[in-house]
Design goal:
Length: about 80
């Protein structure tokens, strides 16, 4: 991945132009003079995507999960 360094004090590109660099696969390092401030990198695309129901039995909720908590909890008493 190539890195393009842009000084914010002399930046003449619009956001669209910066994003065009990222879309082409380049990382963009924003600096203020010689001090690095932020780095914008392209996101890796998911190759498989999400699979609904893959872990359908991995979580359980108690029957009373939405029951009110006891007053001791709210009063900070053990």
């Amino acid at each position: 991945m190539t890195t393009t360094t842009l000084d914010i004090n002399t930046l003449r590109l619009s956001l669209d132009e910066v994003l065009a660099l990222v879309r082409k696969g380049a990382a963009v390092l924003f600096t203020e003079g010689s001090v690095p401030l932020a780095k914008l990198v392209p996101l890796a695309a998911s190759e498989t995507g999400r699979i609904p129901g893959l872990h359908s039995d991995s979580m359980e909720a108690a029957d009373d999960f939405d029951a009110p908590l006891p007053d001791d909890f709210w009063l900070g008493q053990p």
